[in-house]
Amino acid sequence: MDSTLPAVAEELLKEIKKAFQETSHVPDDLLLGLKFIFGPSAVPALDLVDQRSVTRVKSPSGRTAYQVLGNSGKLYTCYSSCHFCTCPAFEFTVLQKSESLLCKHILAVYLSRAMGACQELTVSEEQLTSILLAEEEDEG
Predict the structure, then answer these.
(1) What angle do CA 115, 52, 63 make, to 5 degrees?
(2) Between the CA atoms of 101, 107, 109 and 110, what dihedral angle is there, to the nearest 10 degrees?
(3) What pTM was computed for the model?
(4) For a Cys-Cys bond, which of 8, 40, 44, 98 suits 104, CB 3.0-4.6 Å?
(5) 134 CA to centre of own chain
(6) DSSP symbol at 24
(7) Name one GO biological process term (predicted).
């Protein structure tokens, strides 16, 4: 996992990955830990994972971003390397109010990676640039 989360969150995600690799499911105690650490983001993030809403977008140079199809049908771009999402909830609850460690979209990225549930999409450098620039245009 990336070193942008508190150690307890990192350890929980590692335990989820280990348990899922061994048994193909996440035990109740780890689900409770997920709810305790990530609060209201946990259940919606698990729903996104179940719906296979997370896509890892990579280019030939190795640049990677994640796109998460939200429940509203909007596609959000997440960067696990710097722990950032383009959704309004991330801006408001994580950045402005510091009420949560992350939004459901980033948590879904971490969980999808841990459970091997990411869709994979390889695009050209130009296509990845367009995806990233489209997000900037949406914000402006």
Answers:
(1) 75
(2) 80
(3) 0.88
(4) 44
(5) 19
(6) S
(7) double-strand break repair via homologous recombination
**In terms of C-beta density within 10 A (0-12 exposed, 13-18 middle, 19 or more buried), how is residue 23 classed?**
exposed
Domain limits of the chain? 7-129
pLDDT tens, position by position, 8-42: 999 999 999 999 999 999 999 999 999 999 999 99
Taking phi first (over 0 means left), then psi (-120 to 50 degrees means alpha), and beta for anything else, what does residue 35 get?
alpha
Convert the pLDDT of each residue in 59-103 to its tens digit: 999 999 999 999 889 999 998 878 899 999 999 988 888 888 889
C-beta of residue 82 within 8 angstroms of C-beta of residue 94: no
Neighbouring C-beta atoms of residue 21, cutoff 10 Å:
11
Instruction: Give the tokens for residue 20.
Output: 């899922």
